[in-house]
Structure formats: structure tokens, C-alpha cells
Amino acid sequence: MHALPSRVDTGSESFVRNREQNLEALAKVHARLAKALAGGGDKAVARHVARGKLTPRQRVALLLDRDSPFLEIGALAGGHDGGHPGAGMIGGVGRVSGTDVLITASEATVQGGAINAAGVAKSNRLAQVALENQLPTVHCIESAGADLPNQADIFVPGGAGFREITQRSRARLPTISLVFGSCTAGGAYIPGMSDYVVMVDQAAYMYLAGPPLVKMALGEEVDDEALGGAAMHSRVSGVSDYLATDERDALRLGRELVAQLGWRRRGPDPRGPGDAPLYPAEDLLGIASADVKQPFDIHEVIARIVDGSRFHAFKPLYGPTLVCGFAEIHGWRVGILANHGVLFGASADKGAQFIQLCNQSDTPLVFLQNTTGFMVGRAAEEAGIIKAGAKLVNAVSNSTVPAITIMVGGSYGAGNYAMMGRAYHPRFLFTWPNHRIAVMGPEQLAGVLDLVKRGAAARKGVPVNEEELAMLKGMLVGKVERESTALYATARQWDDGIIDPRDTRTVLGLALSAATCAPVEGTSAWGTFRH
User: Fold this and answer.
1) With DSSP H G I counted as helix, E B as strand and the rest as coil, what are the percentages for the chain, rounded to 5?
2) What DSSP string describes 408-433?
3) Which of 1, 2, 57, 503 is nearest to 282 (CA)?
4) Which of 40, 153, 267, 365 could bridge to 109 as Cys pair (CB 3.0-4.6 Å)?
């Protein structure tokens, strides 16, 4: 396996421009992240800390092994239409007592940790991560239950979370709940369905209905401690398995519980040395086009994320607009599919064959997506671009080895599907800040609208209202541009988060570590391939 050469000119005008614009885009991401990290704001956090509590992020940090990274998922989920970035909860994969686990933490400083609609969607995504990658789960809970004014958007889909906890338990994927504060109604059912429950004395409470509702419904006078306190549940009801003296003690117990699980990786361990690439990750800011209409050499990206910059290209002379090949990332062998231009029939054929080969050898897949979609036009249609594209989508749909997708540029049309977009269930999907996603580019959509309106006017025998058409096209372009950005997409949970391009190799390593906790088994079963 040979090292890829690099021809990047870090002093070129395009490199400098890309770097500046990508840093500007990252600054917007960091500003949104700062709001998520701030929780409910200074006053809410101060009140929380004044009660002798750790912040939710402090809880996560103390739960993790010392100096262990945390692969956060959905950090900016729900940050649209006035919602708080992060959807009122923290979630991701980290190492606890030497074991990769799925961690969630209620953001108790945001509406008391109440669950909103975006939080339900995020919870369901995190549950999917735990199940697919066969990870134990640790919940750090302090939740007021459902966001009642918006209960209509929460009640029905929210029930799936309880079902999934017990289904994971049946699959021998235990859930550990550490209860730090009040957990009411649905918030109580999360620990109630868990395999292990730890409650903090004189601080944690669980009940289906709090004292005010009990009084209203039954006329019964009862305080929090008697109704659902940690001591009562540990000594009387048996809902709690362990009574912690304080929050740090609860986290200690959580770490001990993970350690006693005796968890082991069911997939392959890294086999290579995991040596660093030959070229600096810093270059990625200048390599990636800030304007996705401008192409860039995907080989330069690969050279900065794979071990030793080594890459064994598969069919390098055939279908060159889809780069396929084998490499290692932090020691894990992977098959890479990366866009290097529009997808032609030959590119799709090559990609489908390569996915079959990776399944044959139980090799995880990494997709580097930067696509305008499939080639169009009479020649492409006569050559069977639809059946070639269907072949690649078939392979992507039925592949069973873990797949990780990084959106390094544009994601348009059926190219999104063929390159393992969100709907095709990659284990993890992250984006760069320059990412754009839509059915097609705004200019193309406006052009289609122009042709449709002019055609309709011609059929009616009436003149085109040029002023009205120009206004409609302008509105459409603006709307699509707003709805195509990485920030728009991540708020709606079309991905697992926006990452700094310089962190791509680290993110892939963490994702591969999580994915290989489950068995890595390919398939030889496919849908019908058209020929």
C-alpha cells in the first residue's frame, strides 16, 4: 500500500480564500455551540449550582475515564424555530471504565430537563446508536418529564424510548440510570425501565405524579421525600438499587457498575500501527471548497485522514469520479468511497462492486460525500444511468458492515442516497461546515421553475409576467439557500453534528471504535441488480 502524494499549494489564492471562509463558517458553528454549552444561561446555571449540584456537562466529564474523548451527537439538534441548541439534553459515545458506552445527560438548566419534540427525536437517535453498535447506556437523569404545553408533539413518539430501553435489555445491552434530581412522569419511566438505578440521597426524586398533582387527584398531603425520595425508593419500593451519598458518589457507582459488566468488544480490534498521516490536518481548511460549486481533489482529503497517508486504490482507471480503495484509520481497516466529480454509470458500477467486496471481507465503509448527483442528459439515459445508479443504491441499502459518512461538501439529489445519506442508516454521519444539502442547487431549482412557468404560459397562449417570475425565482433561491446550510441541517438532525475538518480523523477513529463494539459481518445477499 503506497502513500498518496500531495500537490497542495498552501500559498495559492484559492487555498487562502477557502481557509478564511471555512474559518468564518466554523465561527458560526462555535457561536451556536457556545449557546448549547451555556445550558439555560448564567442565572439558571447559578441556581442549579447553588443547590450543590454539578452541571450536566460536569457529570459527563466525571463519568468518563480521565482524558477520554467524548464523541458528542446532536450537539446543535433542535436549535431552530426558537429552540435551544442541543434539544435539552447531552448525548454521545465515551469511554467509562475502559468500555465504550452511550451516555446521555438531561440538561437540567433548560426547562428543568423537560423533554421537547426535538429531544424525543434526539433520544431516539441515541437509542439507535446504542442498539446498532451494541453499547451499554448510562443515563444521567434530572428531568421534569414532558414539556406539557407541547405535549401533542411528544406524547406518542416519546413512548418509543421506554420500549427501546427494555428491548436493549432483552438484547443484553444494559442501561444504567444515575438519578440526580426530580424525575417526574415520563422522566421516571427511564430509570424505571433501566437495568440498574442509582439515586442521590436528599436530592433525587422519582414519581409518576408530584405532590401538587397527588393532592389535586387524591387530596393526599405528601412531600417530595416521602412520595418519591431516594431513601424511600432504595429502602421501601425497591425502584432504586443503590443509594448514593452525593453526586460524585453516584458517578463513582456508575463507573463501578460499568466495570462489573465485564463488557467486551465483539468486533475486530485495530490491526495496524495507527501512524499519523504524512500531511497536516490543518491543510483541510484550505483544501475544502467553501463554495461547493468549486470542485477539489478528494485524494488530498484522504491523504490527511488515513494512517501514513497510505491508500490502495481499487479500479483507479475506471469510473474515476468515484474514488474507491482500502486504507487504515487508527489501525482499523476500512473501505473508502469518495466523490471526485459527478457520478457516471461506470462510477456507480465500481462503487457497487467495491461495497460487495468490503462485505465479503467484513470491512467497514467510510463515505466521503461531495456530490452533485448522477449524470443527466440523453447520452447518460441511453447508457442506463438509472440502472447503474439503482445498482449502487441497492448495494448501499443492503450492505451490513458498519458505514460512517462524512459530508465534506455538497449533497444533492440521488447522490445523497447512493453515498450513504441519512436515510440509508450509516452508523454515524457528520458534516463539515461548508456542507450543503438539497434536492438540487438553488440556481438549478430556479431554472426549472423558470422553464415550467414559461411552458405553462405558452400552452395557455398568454405572455409571461417577467416581474412576477423574477420575484418567485428570487424567493425560491433565497429559501433553498437558507434550507441547504449545515446549520439548518444539523438543527433538524439530518446528521450527528458539524465537525471541524481538522478533527475528521479523530472523529472517524472514535466512530470506528464504537462501531466495532458490535460484530462486523458482511452479507452476500442483495436485491436484484439490473444489467
Assistant:
1) 45, 20, 35
2) EEEEETHHHHHTT-GGG--SEEEE-T
3) 503
4) 40
What does the angle CA 372 – CA 373 – CA 374 come to, to the nearest 5 degrees? 135
- Count CA within 13 A, CB hemisphere, residue 249: 10
Q: Looking at 213-227, 379-393, 409-423, which range is the least confident one? A: 213-227
- 345 exposure class (CB count in 10 Å sphere: 0-12, 13-18, 19+): buried
Cell of 15: 487555498
| Cβ neighbours around 492 below 10 Å, total | 17
| Rounded Cα–Cα distance for residues 401 and 407 (Å) | 19
How far is it, in rounded angstroms, from Cα 284 to Cα 300? 8
pLDDT tens per residue across span 287-304: 999 998 899 999 999 999
Nearest-angstrom CA–CA distance, 339 and 321: 6
Report the predicted TM-score, pTM, of the whole model to 2 decimal places. 0.93
Q: Are strands 182-184 and 89-96 parallel, antiparallel or unpaired?
A: unpaired
Most confident of 3-17, 440-454, 461-475: 3-17
Q: How long is the chain?
A: 531
Give the rounded distance of the alpha carbon of 47 from its chain centre.
Answer: 31
Instruction: Kindly give, in sequence order, each residue whose CB lies less than 8 Å from that of residue 230, ignoring residues fewer than 6 positions away.
Output: 179, 199, 200, 201, 202, 203, 204, 205, 240, 243, 244
CB atoms within 10 A of CB 342: 18
Measure the CA–CA gap between 105 and 138, rounded to whole angstroms. 9
CB 209 within 8 A of CB 169: no
At 141-196, the pLDDT tens digits run: 998 665 555 665 666 676 778 888 999 999 999 999 999 998 887 778 899 999 99
- The residue whose grid cell reads 447518460 is 380
Bridge partner list, 105: 90, 140
Give the Cα separation of 32 and 76 in Å (integer). Answer: 7
Query: Average model confidence (pLDDT) for the chain?
Result: 91
End-to-end Cα, the chain, rounded Å:
32
Nearest to 481 by CA among 289, 292, 340, 286: 292
